[in-house]
Design a protein that fits this description.
Phosphatase 2c, domain 1, single chain, alpha+beta, Beta-Lactamase, elongated, Bact_Sigma-Reg, PP2C family protein-serine/threonine phosphatase, protein serine/threonine phosphatase activity
Length: 452
């Protein structure tokens, strides 16, 4: 059974059911309670689950919610304000009945379907008006069963009562809330319809908010993904591996990027950066800075000089956004490494089979802040040694400091040599388990053992 099929004790109906003659204060108290429980997150499925959880058993024995599939998958309103032939999905169902497994079979959570126009569900979608059926006769029950090829539907609905209320936001029908009472319960009355419409109105606002949130997040992720390199340059003398994990929510989707840029004389530059801020604007700025870095790299500047010029570019692009960046050059002929940091976490050096340690880079101001020339530091990458560049989303969490995170990353990188892809997988899995709300970029480069 999925978590989106909610089962409640049918005996709770006696104690909790809002009676047909309930006072206006009782109905208002129910709606106030619903407002505090619905929309606790910006997850659309969770919102739908909260709605049916509120409705059952307070006003119905069973409840399901249907949302237009396009709204769920694309975050877009349908092409027409009302549409009885729209493809809809049932994100959640709740029941307080003696035979819950029969209801799960008849009305499975997650089902995607189209309701025939002769059914009351489709009529609510077509008219944007509540449909109340005090008594479900044999014809209505059989029509529902026939439409989905499940005879059990007729048996469950016959003799009960229907209340189908459209979910409307910005003049568009997003779907509908369906409430069912069994023959043993009092049929739906006009006051129940008014109450359901209030509940649906509040639900529609939450669903629309979730739609907008997920649409912006999908857009930011799509933009960010399109601006990251599909295939990195593999320079002579280095093995390269990389990972990028997006944030778990929009508040963390920013502008992490990484790159490997060829330089004259078989040398290369390794770059990792992070635009501060979130959403589409940060992702767009990231793309501009990545392009600017590639352009400046053609000039073959030393790392500190390059980041100085990149800072000037950043201030012209968007003075309201700043970024951090680590820029490292490597010469396979000598193993020489030169690096500079604009407010970025330090690269790590892992000697062959040894322990990872942060490189002694002197961090300057972030891009977009400075105007200062940054110091270029040097080191040597021995054959078989590895460099690790990363963003702070990998090491800084709500529960640990950056220094603690770097120490943890060093422990994951240390030890006997392993395939770079395997190392990346291990680090990415640790990051996934932490469920952090920030992007993460990781770039590993290992010096190939030179033949003797």
């Amino acid at each position: 059974m999925t978590p989106d099929f909610v089962i409640k004790d049918p005996r709770s109906r006696v104690e909790l059911r809002l009676r047909g003659d309930a006072s206006s204060q009782e109905r208002l108290a129910f709606l106030n309670d619903a407002s505090t429980r619905i929309g606790s997150t910006l997850d659309l499925t969770q919102t739908c689950r909260e709605v049916v959880d509120v409705a059952v058993p307070r006003i119905a024995d069973a409840s399901g919610i249907m949302v237009q599939e396009r709204l769920i998958t694309e975050g877009e309103f349908p092409g027409h304000p009302t549409d009885s032939a729209a493809l809809v999905r049932r994100p959640a169902t709740a029941v307080a009945v003696d035979n819950p497994w029969d209801w799960a079979t008849a009305f499975p959570a997650g089902e995607v379907t189209v309701y025939p126009p002769y059914l009351p569900q489709a009529q609510a979608m077509a008219t944007a008006k509540t449909v109340r059926i005090p008594y479900i006769d044999q014809t209505i029950a059989d029509d529902n069963a026939r439409a989905f090829g499940r005879p059990i539907i007729a048996r469950l609905l016959l003799g009960g009562s229907f209340l189908i209320t459209p979910l409307i936001a910005r003049g568009n029908v997003l779907g509908y809330l369906v409430l069912v009472r069994q023959p043993c319960s009092e049929p739906f009355q006009e006051p129940d319809a008014a109450l359901a419409e209030e509940l649906a109105a509040r639900t529609s606002i939450c669903i629309d908010n979730a739609r907008l949130y997920h649409r912006e997040r999908r857009t930011a992720l799509a933009l960010q993904s399109s601006l990251l390199p599909a295939r990195l340059h593999h320079p002579p003398g280095l093995e390269i591996a990389h990972r990028y994990l997006p944030a778990g929510d929009l508040a963390g989707v920013g502008g992490d990027w990484y790159d490997v840029i060829p330089l004259p004389g078989d040398r290369c530059a390794l770059v990792v950066g992070d635009v501060m801020g979130h959403g589409i604007s940060a992702a767009a700025t990231m793309g501009q800075l990545r392009t600017a870095t590639q352009t400046l790299a053609i000039l073959d500047l030393d790392p500190g000089e390059l980041l100085f010029h990149l800072d000037n570019v950043a201030r012209r692009l968007n003075p309201d956004q700043i970024a951090t960046c680590a820029y490292v050059t490597y010469d396979p002929a000598t193993g020489a490494v030169a690096m500079a940091s604009a407010g970025h976490v330090p690269p790590l050096l892992v000697p062959p089979g040894g322990e990872a340690t942060p490189l002694p880079v002197v961090p300057g101001p972030p891009l977009g802040v400075g105007g200062e020339r940054l110091e270029t530091c040097t080191a040597t990458l021995p054959p078989g040694g590895m460099l690790a560049l990363y963003t702070d989303g990998l090491v800084e969490t709500r529960d640990r400091t950056v220094d603690e995170g770097i120490a943890t990353l060093c422990s994951l990188l240390s030890g006997p040599p392993r395939a770079l892809e395997r190392v990346c997988d291990t680090i990415a899995e640790v990051r996934r388990q932490a469920d952090e709300r920030d992007d993460m970029a990781l770039l590993l480069a290992r010096a190939v053992e030179r033949a003797t």
